[in-house]
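So, who can interpret the following?
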Amino acid sequence: MIKPEDIKAGQSYACYFKAEMMLDIHGRPPGLSDTPLKGPGWYEGFGLIQTRDSEKKLFEIIDQESNRKMIVPWDQCRDIDLAEIKE
């Protein structure tokens, strides 16, 4: 398993993560639809790591389901691995 400190620039990585945020009644981050909000909760997702902030120990992750950018602390990420991006 890859640790956040071991990520190398120029390679693609992905991970599972959890982030506390406002969620809709289906447990998803709110979108542009008219789905009512449920309130704050934990969202769990999988996404590509875009940037790493070693000083603040944060990742910028693009969630694959919602296509949203999430800022997530390293300790809320797991199973970091190399990612193969296919068009």
